[in-house]
Amino acid sequence: MKRTKKIDAIAGALIASLTLIAAGTAVIAAPPQQAQAVTMQQYKAKLQSQSDLKAKLAGVNSQLAAQILELNDLNQNQIPAAQQALQDAQNSAEQAQAQAQAAQERLEAAKQDKADLEEQIKQTGADYDDAKAAVAQMARDSFHGTTASEVMNVVMNSSTTEDFVNKMQADAAVTRTESNAANDAATELSTAKNRGQRLAAIEDEITTLKRKADTQAAAAQKAVETAQAKQSELNDLLAKGNAERQSLESQKSQLTSQSAKEAAEIVTMEAEINSWSSSYSNQQASPSSGGSQAATRKPSNSGSSSSSSGSSSNSGSSHTSSSSTASRPSSSGGSSSSSSGASGMNYSVPGSCPAGSSFCYGHSTGNSGNAYPARQCTWWAYIRRQQLGLPVGSYLGNGGQWASKARALGYLVNNTPHVGAVIVFAPGQRVTNWYASAAYGHVAIVERVNSDGSVLISEGGTKCPYIPYSEVVYNASSFQYVHY
């Protein structure tokens, strides 16, 4: 009876579990959360940026001005929107694939439940047959012999009275066991009928789960195809932006005013930073790689004028973009050194610190490979510093900790922006139209110091629609910078 109750409890639990699984499917299949729309503040900021750019292009050839504005629109609106659409599609595809996998696992679990129950039903029949055979043997023994003959047999074969008693008790025990087995088998046979009903219910549930699994698999496949289409659209926009950037580079000589030259330089640099994103979209960070893939990229001159003070003083005086530009990965793979300096700093970009260096500029770098989480701001900052030949540590902590931890290692840290420096945002500090994580802070790389004191940065992280992402940050002296 104990065995019967245990099996009934197991079978009942299986049915209850299947019912809960079916009820929970609607919850699991809930649509993904939609991305938030651009805020009014962000919208106004974009309009103001476009208006400011137009003002800087006053007097420029209308065709060339239109090309600069088009490239800026690609940088600021079309490419970010396409990247966000891709990210949403990829998230949907991942969720759909997870749901399809879960549905398949539920189906397999139900099939296993069915197999287990069928085995139990089969075993019940075997137990009944064994007990029936034992009872039949008892009947045959009774027909061919009598109780008296059995007693005489025991007496004749017993050497002592005690032996006689033990043999009689043993025979009685065997008889009781066989009788109990027959009774249990009859009960089990009755229970098997209930198990048969449960088996039919599981078979119905398998049919339902099979339909759901097929539907989820089809939805997952469609979501993957949508993500692939979004990736293709983004690639087309990036290719368009790259073509327009190259065309604009060849026409810069037509720009006469300093403001127009700087505006074109910023727009083309943003487009180039955007073009890098495809190189890092699927790259994963690992201590073994140490960011070596990025470090093998050759820096190239940005094309604007530069100068180097070569000063070793720490005066912290101001520095503007007219004499500073980033050296960036070149699609051609060639390189030319670009000397760019700021008062208080004696390094140029690219620097002279070989990738992976554990000691550089007179102090330990703390570099033992890229140990930062993939695609986060610290991950990108490590990669970009390696590209620029500047020292970088592997365990500088969360973004907001980089200034203090780098200073402890011997890095120069101050409030003066410089091309290639790590800009450090304290936890909760405003970046542009968003704020650094209140728990972790944020870091980015200064790619350009502009004439109005703002800085163009490249960055990674969860707030960036793609990596690397570019933004212009104002109030540059409000932040700390890790130099060399």
UniProtKB/TrEMBL annotation:
Residues 352-483 form the Peptidase C51 domain. Residues 85-115, 242-263, 278-344 are annotated as: Disordered. Residues 248-260 have a biased composition (Polar residues). Residues 105-115 have a biased composition (Basic and acidic residues). Residues 87-104 have a biased composition (Low complexity). The lineage of its organism: Bacteria, Bacillati, Actinomycetota, Actinomycetes, Bifidobacteriales. Residues 1-29 form the signal peptide. Keywords: Signal. It comes from Bifidobacterium apri. It holds the Pfam family CHAP. This is CHAP domain containing protein.
